[in-house]
Amino acid sequence: MVVDLSFTNANLKNVLSSLAKAYGLNIVAPDAIAGTITLTLRDVTLEEGLRQLLKLNGFGFTVRDEIIEVIKLEEKRVA
Description:
Elements lengths: L1 E10 H12 L3 E2 L7 E10 H10 L3 E6 L2 E6 L7
Parallel strand pairs: 2-5
Antiparallel strand pairs: 1-3, 4-5
């Protein structure tokens, strides 16, 4: 799925929640996730958009059984 994403000084938790609702995603994020993001991406896959917006605050994700788990980049493991 190709999407356009645009956020300005947006709370990262709110962005993840909005994406989960808009695209029917199952996202699990730690309580420690925090920060704001500003980005504009056009014609990117949803996966690449998610990867870029998380990377801005030092996070990444793994996918297992249709669940996206948000993790710190240094904790990233193979699913």
